Amino acid sequence: MTHTMEQKKPFKALDIAYIGVCTALIAVCSYISIPTVVPFTLQTLAVFLVMQILGGRNGFYSVLAYLLLGAVGVPVFAGFTGGPGVLFGTTGGYLIGFLLMAMLYWAAEALVGEALWVRIVSLIAGLAVCYAFGTVWFLFLYNRSNDPVGISTALGWCVLPFLIPDGIKLAAATGLAAALRPVLRKQ
User: Fold this and answer.
1) DSSP string computed for the chain
2) Confidence class of residue 186 from pLDDT cuts 50, 70 and 90?
3) pLDDT (tens digit, 9 = 90+) per residue, 85-102?
4) Topology (CATH level 3) of domain 13-185
5) DSSP, residue by residue, 34-62
6) Whole-structure pTM over 0.70, yes or no?
7) What residue ranges do the domains of the chain occupy?
8) d(Cα 142, Cα 154) in Å, to the nearest integer?
């Protein structure tokens, strides 16, 4: 069943449990990190998976819960960090971009449905929005406190190294979702 953003459908206890478990999954995947200017983590794998198994509405709330936990200081971000300094720091735009990705996914699901191609296209488009928002955010904050860098440098640091790994994560998440969706949807 497709959930539209306009519906005022109440959350079931099982929805809340899945949102909580998936929020924890995103946090655990953020701990698996290779430090760079923007750390390599498995957060995007988790966000891709969460969106596909929970759907737009519940996936959005899982990502929102993850960001709120990090914002209040719970160390759920890469490198066991948390707090507003991380969320609103130079790489925080990419974290907030996850929420934009979830919003786009939810909207696509509400407008077009849950077909595999819709899920994949909306996640790719959401990732592009995440990259764009995060890079603009990064440039703004980085250039305020360091020697200014241009868009090509920022893309070289923050986007280009992630394109292939994020493509692999999307494929892996889609494969995992194909196995998990039927089981979870029966609940």
Assistant:
1) -PPPTT--PPPPHHHHHHHHHHHHHHHHHHHSEE-SSS-EESHHHHHHHHHHHH-HHHHHHHHHHHHHHHHTT-S-BTTTB-SHHHHTSTTHHHHHHHHHHHHHHHHHHHHH-S-HHHHHHHHHHHHHHHHHHHHHHHHHHHHHHSS---HHHHHHHHTHHHHHHHHHHHHHHHHHHHHHHHHHHT-
2) confident
3) 999 999 999 999 999 999
4) Arp2/3 complex 21 kDa subunit ARPC3 (1.10.1760)
5) E-SSS-EESHHHHHHHHHHHH-HHHHHHH
6) yes
7) 13-185
8) 9
DSSP letter (8 states) at residue 2: P
**Partners of 34 in the β-ladder:** 40
Q: Which helix (H) or strand (E) holds 3?
A: none
Structure tokens belonging to residue 182: 């039927």
pLDDT digits 0-9 by tens, 33-79: 887 777 789 999 999 999 999 999 999 999 999 999 999 999 999 98
Q: What angle do CA 116, 49, 40 make, to 5 degrees?
A: 125
d(CA 147, CA 111): 44
- The band of 7, judged by pLDDT with boundaries at 50, 70 and 90, is low
Residue 1 in this model has a pLDDT that exceeds 50:
no
